[in-house]
């Protein structure tokens, strides 16, 4: 989710978020200026245009319930990722049981060395970037395409 949030921020969207715990990704997003709240509170929904959630979040989450009550579209991470890959001419999705982040990072690094300046969205930290998301100017997007529920 943090990679998608960062990419949307780089595309000039206003982003807010929540997580149950403070962690490295939350800290990094806060440093980028994204308002991240710890804990789930329905009041945090505000006037959102859309709520994007991870498949790890249960449907009884108070923020999801409030968004639905307010008529705010509620979409899964996989759906938002699908929207993001549609903005580039070529998309490369990496899925599987093990090695998705490593493989996605390697593909992104190879494309960058080939001067293709790809967009990259992965679950883990890409060592060469110091982040898990990068908005490139090229026509290729590389994504880590699945979550634990195979979405």
UniProtKB/TrEMBL annotation:
GO function term, MF aspect, one: acid-amino acid ligase activity
Q: Where is the Mur ligase N-terminal catalytic domain?
A: 1-86
Organism of provenance: marine metagenome
What's a Pfam family in this record? Answer: Mur_ligase
What lineage does the source organism belong to?
Answer: unclassified sequences, metagenomes, ecological metagenomes
Question: Which InterPro entries does the entry link to?
Answer: Mur-like_cat_sf, Mur_ligase_N, MurCDEF_pg_biosynth
Q: What is this protein called?
A: Mur ligase N-terminal catalytic domain-containing protein
């Amino acid at each position: 989710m943090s990679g998608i949030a960062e990419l949307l921020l780089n595309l000039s969207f206003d982003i807010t978020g929540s997580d149950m715990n403070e962690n490295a990704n939350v800290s990094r997003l806060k440093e980028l200026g994204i308002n991240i709240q710890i804990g789930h509170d329905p009041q945090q929904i505000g006037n959102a245009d859309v709520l994007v959630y991870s498949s790890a979040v249960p449907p009884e989450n108070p923020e999801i319930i409030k968004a639905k009550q307010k008529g705010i579209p509620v979409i899964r991470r996989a759906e938002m990722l699908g929207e993001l890959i549609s903005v580039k001419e070529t998309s490369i999705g990496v899925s599987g049981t093990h090695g998705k982040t490593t493989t996605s990072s390697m593909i992104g690094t190879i494309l960058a060395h080939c001067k293709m300046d790809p967009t990259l969205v992965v679950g883990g930290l890409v060592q060469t970037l110091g982040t898990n998301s990068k908005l490139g100017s090229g026509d290729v997007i590389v994504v880590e395409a699945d979550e634990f529920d195979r979405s």
